[in-house]
Structures are given as structure tokens and as C-alpha cells.
Design goal:
The chain is an alpha/beta fold. Helix 2 packs across helix 5.
Amino acid sequence: MTDASPTAIPPAVTQLRELALSAACAAAVRAAARLGVMDALGDEPATAEQLAAAVNAQPEALARLLRALASHGIGAELPDGRFAHSDTSRLLREDAPRSLRYTCLWATEPWTWELWPHLDEAVRTGKSAFADLFGTEFFDYLHTSEARESSEVFDKAMTQSSILSARAIADVLNLDGVERIVDIAGGQGRVLATLLERHPALRGTLFDLPDVVAGADPRLRSGGALAGRATLVGGDCRQEIPVSADVYLLKNILEWDDESTVRTLRNAAAAARPGARVVVIENLVDGSPEARFTTAMDLMLLLNVGGKKHTEAGLRALVGQAGLRLDAVTPVNSYLHMFESTVV
């Protein structure tokens, strides 16, 4: 007796073939998001013809797309040929409470497809491939007219990411006795707004590039519910952080080269009084239950900005190089860790 038929395909072969064609899955997710097909699919199953009419698509081609997605658990194909939602496919809906629609679009923007084939070159050199391909650095590119749509998608993706993590951060971050907090490179300020709502006596500053803070969460802007306790300040944290606070929060921004990371932490320490806290919240590439997500993001950062996700030991070392005293490392959720340090 043999353990397997001589004609059976080994699982390793199946796995590697699927991985080699995994770009097809990413493209299918992007197509579904751009077509809005999961928004068109309601609580009741629907045929490809019904969905195609709703999203202006060719029925047979749409059925093929939906079948490919269903093979990954993104929706389901029923025995009668109709298609239904799964928990995963609902996350592509615009109105889903934990929607990942813009996160999926950002991860599959046109520039990403041009970058990935250059990964071997980036691994060989340890440097970003973006500027050589596009003639400018990544964030400068996002501010060009050519990348207007990508820039809008990026902003919405960052907002979705903050929505998912803001409540978890508010649950674990101890702000007892804290009068003022500054959210450094905090985007539209979703995390800051959540913290201000959770702590009625707290005052906060959103610090980011001028055009970013101009589009801050309406709750923080003039006339907003939190405007009386919020200040908006424009600037570049890698140059200076001209804000005095009790707590300096840096969430998912220390993803550049090590020198830029240390410089940003030193800028926070320079702005703070002794005893102030610097709180860094990051994805880690080691010991994470979501290793596939964090390691993929790590490779993307190598390609587009020459940056990286950190190991716990690596980030501990950078905090020390900045002259901060690391006090604790605490999990926030399945993919974020909080590094709390003190200015000495």
C-alpha cells in the first residue's frame, strides 16, 4: 500500500502554483471593489445577470470573477448558480462597519503592479525602486495630478485603518492624569477624536503635513463637536515637532529608514518636558498572528519608500538610540503593539 496515488498532486505543488498566480486574486478583489459588485449584492443571493445589470458588467465575465472570488471565500457560489455574501465579501461594501474597500484598493493601485516586479532588485540593493520608476519619491508622487485618485484612495484607506484600530488603542492607552496629547502624523485625526471622546478633560493636537490637517475629521475642525479641545498644526515630524504635550502618540508612521525613525523620535523628545511619554504603535513582523499581512506590508515599504516594518528587538533598539527610556511593550490587537517610553 502506498500513502498516495502516483497521480496525486502533492499539496506543496498546489500551494506554490496558487501563490504564483495570487496576483489574480488581488486583481479580482480590486475589480470587485471598483465595480461595486458587493454593494449591489444584498442580503438575498442574486444571479450574475442581476448583478451585472446593477453594475453595468457583462454577465458571463462577472460570473467568472465572482467564481474566482468565491474560491477564496470572498462570497459564495450556491448550487443553483446564484451568488451570496460571506463575512469576507461584506467587508468590500462601502457601508460595512469594518469596511476594507479602500484598503484593498490602495493595496492594488496601478503603481503597485509596476513596483512588484522590481522586488528582486530592491532585495539586492536594499533600496526603494519607486523613484527610479516614477521619477520622484512616493509621497511626492501622491501629490501630483497624475496620482490624484491614488492619493484620495490612500487617504480613505488610512481612515479605514484608523477606524479599525482607534477603539482598541483607546481601550489600552492609559491617559489618567494626562492633560494634553499630540497625535503625530495622525492623518485625519480619527484616533485623536476617539481619545478625546473617551476622555472629556483631555485636550489634543493633530500634527501632520499642512494639506493633511486641512482635511481633518470634521469633529476636530472649527464648529466640530471636539473643536474646543483640539488644535490642528501643520508640519513635518521628521524636521520638527513644535508641540508641547504630556503624551506624544506615533501610530504606524515609523516605517522609514532607521535614521528617519530615530530622528523623528528625537524630535518628539526635544519638544517634550522630562517625564513626558512617547507612545509608538506599530505592526511587528515577528510573533504576529497576522504575519502574512505584516511581512507583505514590509516588502511593500521596501519597494515604495525604502522603509520597513520592525521586529520587537529592532524597534526597542531604535527607541533606545533616540534617548528614550522604554517602559513597556503591550499588544493592542492581533496586529498592533504599543511601545511606551519616557523622556528622561
